[in-house]
Amino acid sequence: MANEYLTLERLNIHQVTLMQCDFRESIECLARHGVAGTTLWLDKLDETNLDDAVSIVNDNGVRVDALCPGGLLTATKPAAFTAAIDLNRKRLDQAAALGARSLVIITGGLSDGDKDIQTARVRALTGMRQLVGYARNVNVKLALEPLHPMVCGFRSVISTITDAVEFLEELDAGDITGLAIDSYALWWEPRLHEQLLKVAPRVLHFHASDWLRETEDLRLDRGMPGDGIIDNRRIREHMEQGGFTGPVEVEIFSRKDWWRRPCDEVVQTIVERMEVYL
Ligand code: ZN
Description:
Largest sheet: 8 strands, parallel
Bound molecules: zinc ion
Structural class: alpha/beta
Shape: globular
Radius of gyration: 18 Å
Order of helices and strands: EHEHHEHEHEHEHHEHEH
Number of helices: 10
Distance between the termini: 14 Å
Strand order of the largest sheet: 1-8-7-6-5-4-3-2
């Protein structure tokens, strides 16, 4: 598998990459360019009703690999925590209806006033435990995505591959859980390639974009593969050497650049670059 060129069949472009489009426009754009897969962005899914969403993806023949982002399980107030669990159950139902393999889980960061990251991690683990049975029932995997430590405060208290693996081991539900590896979140990790080789069999999703050397926004200034300092191709090859066979998913948050361009130009650029950079 390693060293093979990426094909349109294996390419996934996250719906959030086409933030400038509504739900239908984004799916139609992907279909127009022959892109086989997508990961739906939950804010966009909430803009349409579920039956319409199912029809739109089916009519356009676009495969839904996952829904993103689920989780956010670190609330300190019990009512907010319970609401998060309920919302994730709804997300799992939506994922099942759309034929998605996974719900991508980010743990959430620290609530307002909270200064105890260790206990926040415990709450996230408790939340995940409460979702495992439900996920099994609807046959949708929980794909834990560690995020870059600079967004630890408000997005994810799990930042490294080691932390993510330990978290999943604590959970002890390997049949229904796995990892989402995002190159933007993890490219800086020491011994990254060694680690990826090891965890590759647990990887369900590979999210790819580029880190612009002089980034202007830690979260919303992601670059197009090829424009920055991440070797996405090499990351993919290492995971494939370890047994990863899943989709390669381009996920670009780009408030000042790619979200302002016509969606056809964005998708065309990704397709042009995938043989070299993905
Ligand atoms: Zn991601």
